[in-house]
């Protein structure tokens, strides 16, 4: 993952992160229970989730799931369809006039690949979505990815590397990146 940072677990910083996750997920649950036409209450909860003012032109349809909130920022005229997941600890920057389809996942966090490190750290890297991007239904964007201006990400695509500006990308695939070594023995 490009620009990967690590947060050690079982530290004061990781405990603060976990507390913020509890708060953001609770606020997201409240957001999803509001009547659809209660725009003022939805906007107030989004301001709490994201830790400050949001553009008046931002539209997020419920249900919406966010696990941190403080790492997301939005341009003007952003539309986020229903059922989206933002795991934004590593930072999600969304430019102007971005369209995000239903059930899209933007995930900036994960765990180390090596089995003996997985419970010792959280990894994270930012996602940047530049102006005029359209992300199709059920696409997944992984940590450290930039999607260039004007690009289209097809429905169901898994984006694990940068998308150049003014490109159309589609498909999912299984690509073996490396072998991790021998299987660990059971404790």
UniProtKB/TrEMBL annotation:
Coiled-coil region(s): none
Entry GO MF terms: O-acyltransferase activity
N-terminal signal peptide: none
A Pfam family recorded for this sequence: Hexapep
Gene3D superfamilies referenced in this protein's UniProt entry, alphabetically: Hexapeptide repeat proteins
Gene Ontology cellular component list: cytosol
Keywords assigned by UniProt, alphabetized: Acyltransferase, Repeat, Transferase
Protein name: Transferase
Species of origin: Actinoplanes awajinensis subsp. mycoplanecinus
């Amino acid at each position: 993952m490009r620009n990967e940072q690590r947060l050690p677990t079982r530290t004061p910083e990781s405990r603060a992160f976990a507390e913020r996750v509890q708060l953001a997920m609770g606020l997201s649950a409240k957001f999803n229970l509001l009547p659809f036409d209660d725009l003022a209450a939805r906007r107030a909860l989004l301001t709490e989730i994201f830790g400050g003012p949001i553009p008046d032109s931002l539209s997020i349809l419920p249900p919406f799931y966010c696990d941190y909130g403080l790492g997301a920022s939005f341009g003007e005229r952003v539309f986020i369809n229903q059922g989206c997941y933002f795991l934004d600890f590593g930072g999600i920057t969304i430019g102007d006039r971005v369209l995000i389809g239903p059930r899209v996942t933007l995930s900036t966090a994960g765990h180390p690949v090596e089995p003996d490190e997985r419970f010792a750290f959280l990894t994270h890297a930012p996602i940047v979505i530049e102006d005029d991007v359209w992300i199709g239904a059920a696409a997944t964007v992984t940590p450290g990815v930039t999607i260039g201006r004007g690009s289209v990400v097809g429905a169901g695509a898994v984006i694990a590397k940068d998308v150049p500006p003014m490109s159309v990308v589609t498909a999912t695939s299984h690509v073996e990146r490396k072998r991790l070594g021998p299987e660990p023995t059971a404790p």
